[in-house]
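Structure (tokenized):
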């Protein structure tokens, strides 16, 4: 019964990603409306159209479920389940014509993400993760790669401007112990997809919101990696936004130790 339910949820999640693609692709590298939100972050016509399309499908198929979306906020439900949506994670990349943004779709139950999709509409790339199942990339299973030492690790983050001075010092303490000459800057959710596919070893970020990270957890963990906060604790709906992803869980203690030292 639980497996059949998960199959139905995954089927809907894939249709949500398809609907978001249909809204996003025609507007990429074209004329579209955009503005600044209250926090000064950009939002475009594509962000809003994609989220509206996904919300319509959820209300049609699982009307008792709650919805938490970046652009249109929270709608309560009665099922104890919440769909968490970020129609374009990486709006700045979308506006710059760079196909490294993604649509994030998660299903959260009792505060824990149990299903996640990272979808790159332009490249037609989709990573799907679900509790108890292997992560797939366009239908084929993918795995993270082993990392023998922190010194060999490739680290990624969206950008230094997302860290305050305190967090930035700790991040640089970690980065200094990795192969930082190969550090990846920029990428938003795409970095986590690359980690799940075995191309990056560590992603470290701060100040993320639930819609930024909920979908990433099932994808990374279903590929053999791990996600945690900067204390090494598992991520959940009430986490504080300090996010780590590791392709090789054996390096978690090394990463936590390096983050704790900001010299």
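Design, position by position:
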């Amino acid at each position: 019964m639980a497996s059949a339910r998960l199959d139905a949820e995954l089927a809907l999640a894939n249709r949500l990603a398809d609907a978001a693609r249909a809204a996003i692709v025609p507007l990429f590298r074209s004329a579209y409306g955009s503005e600044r939100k209250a926090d000064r972050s950009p939002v475009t016509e594509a962000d809003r159209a994609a989220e509206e399309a996904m919300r319509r499908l959820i209300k049609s198929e699982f009307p008792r479920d709650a919805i938490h979306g970046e652009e249109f906020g929270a709608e309560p439900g009665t099922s104890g389940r919440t769909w968490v949506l970020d129609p374009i994670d990486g709006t700045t990349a979308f506006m710059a014509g760079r196909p490294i943004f993604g649509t994030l779709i998660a299903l959260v139950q009792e505060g824990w993400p149990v299903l996640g999709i990272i979808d790159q509409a332009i490249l037609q790339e989709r990573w799907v993760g679900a509790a108890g199942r292997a992560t797939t990339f366009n239908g084929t299973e993918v795995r993270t790669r082993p990392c023998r030492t922190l010194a060999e690790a490739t680290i990624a983050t969206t950008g230094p401007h997302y860290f305050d001075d305190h967090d930035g010092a700790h991040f640089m303490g970690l980065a200094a112990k990795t192969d930082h000459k190969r550090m990846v800057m920029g990428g938003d959710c795409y970095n986590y997809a690359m980690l799940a596919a075995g191309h990056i070893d560590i992603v470290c970020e701060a100040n993320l919101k639930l819609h930024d990270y909920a979908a990433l957890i099932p994808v990374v963990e279903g590929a053999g990696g791990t996600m945690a906060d900067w204390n090494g604790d598992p991520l959940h709906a009430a986490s504080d936004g300090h996010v780590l992803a590791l392709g090789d869980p054996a390096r978690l203690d090394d990463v936590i130790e390096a983050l704790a030292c900001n010299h």
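Reviewer-requested clarification: DSSP finds eight helices and 15 strands in the chain. The mean pLDDT is 94.
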